[in-house]
Amino acid sequence: MAHPQLASNVAYFRKPPRDYRIGAVLSAVLCFFPLGLIAIHYSLQVQRQFRSGNLEDSMKASNRTKFLIQTSVIIGSLLWFGGLLGIIYIANK
């Protein structure tokens, strides 16, 4: 008994990868602005690449956006914490 083959014109629907747009904007505003802006750029690229049919590039842009957000949060947290420690140090002199 032969297995039926799928027709060559069958379309597969897939949800677009996450674009992390809200996280990118929040990381730009609250954490580290330069990396946040780059994250916003890649966040916009996720949808553009997906609409043009480039699933692989869309996934790369999504992963890059996530990495930039995480890096922005880490750098921003270190800067905020360092600034707070500096203010406390100067205030106690």
From TrEMBL:
Q: Does the keyword Magnesium apply?
A: no
Cellular compartments annotated: Membrane
Q: What is this protein called?
A: Uncharacterized protein
| Chief location | membrane
Q: Which UniProt keywords apply?
A: Membrane, Transmembrane, Transmembrane helix
Organism of origin: Tegillarca granosa
InterPro entries named in the record: CD225/Dispanin (IPR051423), CD225/Dispanin_fam (IPR007593)
Alphabetized Pfam families for the sequence: CD225
Q: Where are the transmembrane segments?
A: 20-42, 67-91
Key word Ligase present: no
Give the family this protein belongs to, as stated in its UniProt record.
Answer: Belongs to the CD225/Dispanin family.
